[in-house]
UniProtKB/TrEMBL annotation:
Residues 39-82, 92-141, 150-201 form the DC1 domain. Residues 7-23 have a biased composition (Polar residues). The lineage of its organism: Eukaryota, Viridiplantae, Streptophyta, Embryophyta, Tracheophyta. Residues 1-23 are annotated as: Disordered. This is DC1 domain-containing protein. It comes from Olea europaea subsp. europaea. InterPro entries: C1-like_sf, DC1. Keywords: Repeat.
Length: 266
């Protein structure tokens, strides 16, 4: 049972509305302050905004800024991982098939499979297609085919997938932010010759600077102001890039704790 279905009893006639997230949608956003997640049923998770680095217990990727955290133990989820719907319909990165949320990763023998968007291994939460082999991290689901990012003044468009089965340098594009080449989807500027790796775009949405140490090794006071500013700008760009789609859907339809915006939040 998906974690978010636990809240359906308190949502009245909206019970069925959380079963699928259809793109695009444009509901009015509602603030979610606290949820109960089935992967951590003993304690509620509270929405917080902290500059410290953390590793999401769900998808195993790093993050900073907004998250849902347990106040009694070291359990933390990205905001998007905590609020992911059970099913995605018509997602801009895989519109031909339905995508289903899975809490446990799928392995290919002794190795982990990779995300078809960022090309990083999937070690936790994911969305998977039942009709084909496509899969992606929940945070990659926050990306769209065209959107703006705070690190570049122009609109970026996502290029078609490259051949990730080959390690040839011809399939690797130099990123304008991390200054490295790697496999995975890439954004291209519609005005200039600027490229942004999808994995770097995801890091920005997760509140991370593109050059960051591991949470286990880092000084948790690293670039506090910058990390907080990045997550605010990334979420703002998300709404603009997706046309008020999945992020607002998460806020409206999932979890309990609906209420007014706290004056302390930006």
């Amino acid at each position: 049972m998906h974690p978010l279905l636990k809240s359906s009893a308190s949502m009245g006639n909206n019970k069925n509305s959380i079963i699928e997230s259809d793109f695009p949608t444009s509901p009015q956003p509602v603030i979610v302050e606290e949820i109960t997640h089935y992967t951590h049923p003993k304690h509620p998770l509270t929405k917080v905004n902290l500059p410290e680095l953390f590793t999401c217990t769900g998808c195993k990727d790093d993050g900073s800024g907004k998250r849902f955290a347990c106040q009694q133990c070291d359990f933390q989820l990205h905001e998007f991982c905590a609020l992911s719907p059970p099913i995605l319909q018509n997602h801009p990165l895989h519109g031909q098939h339905q995508l289903v949320f899975h809490a446990k990763p799928k392995q290919a023998g002794i190795s982990w499979l990779k995300c078809d968007v960022c090309n990083k291994t999937i070690k936790g939460f994911s969305f998977r297609c039942r009709a084909c082999s496509f899969q992606m991290h929940p945070c990659c689901a926050m990306l769209s085919t065209e959107r703006n990012f705070p690190v570049h003044p122009h609109t970026l468009k996502l290029l078609p997938p490259l051949n990730t089965s080959s390690s040839s340098t011809d399939n690797r594009i130099l990123c304008g932010e991390c200054k490295k080449t790697r496999l995975g989807r890439v954004y291209l500027c519609t005005v200039c010759d600027y490229h942004l790796h999808a994995v770097c775009a995801k890091n920005l949405i997760n509140g991370l600077a593109l050059e960051y140490p591991s949470p286990g090794k880092a000084d948790h006071d690293w670039k506090k102001g910058h990390a907080t500013q990045v997550v605010f700008e990334a979420v703002g760009g998300l709404f603009e890039g997706l046309g008020q789609t999945i992020a607002e859907y998460f806020l409206q339809n999932i979890a309990r704790g609906r209420g007014s915006t706290r004056s302390s939040e930006g």
